[in-house]
Amino acid sequence: MLKKADGFSLLELMLVIALIGVVLAWALPSYQLFLVRTREELLGDKLVKIFGLARDEAILQHKSMIMCGSDDQTTCSSNWSAGQIIFSAENQKKILYRFPLSQKEGVLFWRSSLHRQYVQFLETGLTDFQNGTFWFCDNASQKPVWVIRLNHAGRARMESYSEVGHLALPCA
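The chain above was modelled as a monomer; its predicted structure follows.
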C-alpha cells in the first residue's frame, strides 16, 4: 500500500508563484509612485523646517538672517533645487547652515513679492516685508506637486497644489 505524500504538487507551487508574480507586477508601479510622492513631500517638510530654523536663528541671535538657494553651498544663487544656505546678514562669509538637496525627480521654484532670490528674516522673526511662494514641479508630469507659502510674519506652510490650483505656477 502506497502512502500519499503530504505537501504541494509542482503544479500547485508554480500556480502560486505565477499569481504572486502577477500581483507584484500590478502593485509595483503604484508602490514606486508612492515612494516618489513620499520623497517629494519629505522635501517640502524639510524646506518648511529650514524656514523655521532660519527664523528661529534670527530671533535667538538678534541678527538678521538670510536664506537662499545655493549651487555650491558657499554662495547664493537662483537655483533652490541644488540646496540652501543660511547666514547672518552681518557676516555673509560665515555660513551657519548648509542644506544640500539630492532631489532628482523635479525642480524647486521660488517667487517673491519683492523679486528677490533670497529670504531675509529680521531679528524679530518677521521677513523683510517679503511674501513668497515655493513650488515643486515633478519631472514626470511637469505640474506643481506642492506649494509652500511664506508670509510676512516669517511663517511657512505647505499645501498640496490641488488645494491652491488657482495659482498660475509655471514649471519651466
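The first strand starts at residue 65 and ends at 69.
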